[in-house]
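BUG-324 | component: ligand-complex export | severity: low

The export step for 2P0 jobs runs without errors, but we want the raw record kept on the ticket for reference. Input record follows.
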Amino acid sequence: MTQQGRARACANIALAKYWGKSDETLNLPAVPSLSITLDALVTETVVTLDPGLFEDEVLFDGVVRSGDDATRAREMLGRIRERAGSAVCARVETVNHFPTASGLASSASGFAALAAAGASAYGVDAPLELLSAWARRSSASAARSLYGGFVELSAGLPGDDSLSARVVADAHHWDVCVVIALASLERKKTSSRDGMLETARTSPFYPAWLACAPGYFLEVREGVLARDLERVGEAMEASTFAMHASALAARPAVRYYAAATAVLLDCVESLRARGIAAYSTMDAGPHVKVLCMAGDALAVRDALVASGGAVDVRIARPGPGLTR
Ligand code: 2P0
């Protein structure tokens, strides 16, 4: 009998950002974060045990991968094998259903789906908290993608490998959208992991980021629970710009902005000046994601398209957690 596991998980966008680690070995975040899981960005993963393999084989969208992504996938499978008491290698097939071939991070949905599909394939009966902790070890934002709706991940205490994310409010709690404007189709030059390590190592603004991030997180959390878009939006923008400011002050600078990024940020400001409540956030890349009420999403999308700063614009809604 083929031993196979499959899972689907959605990517997420942080409203309060994670940037920096309290424990590099266990990949624990230095600050708390809160995200929305997004229905439009889905990863599907199938893990198949194969006694004929001498090493785990990792395929993304049908193409065999080597390098960092494959190494991290093998490390995850190694942890699951240890739990299962198995020495059999596996084939990992991952397909990303993302708006375009490039630009948006798939590691969150990818490692969330891999943790679940891997556990099923190896017959490990792991609760969601354990899958979330495994996903976190591979990519901290992935811990949040096991859950749907609005999800938080606390800062980690060094040495605590049990840290997992938890739900703040489900996907139906609040009728908001995230409008995703891709500023470019180029691959980013600096990964999140390298960017945050460089920031921590060399940026004089990193201690300031560590000092202000928990306050922004609390504001975002309270605003989400109160369904207060202005409160969430203002704190989210503060979290975003403080994170990017800390990265920009690294030596050499960790800069994710592109020229088109500024065009899109201006567009969101002018939407607000016209009375549409829309707020910007950015991750470790040039793209701008705009939080707004669902009823304003089409107007926001049309404005971002008209600005000329985007190569692609998509609307995402709060999405579900893991499905198997
Ligand atoms: C976040 N980002 O909270 C932040 C905001 C990007 C900017 O989590 O080193 O892939 O694998 O734990 O989770 C992206 O970084 O980093 C990220 P690792 P990860 O969503």
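Assignee comment: Attached the raw record above. The radius of gyration is 19 Å.
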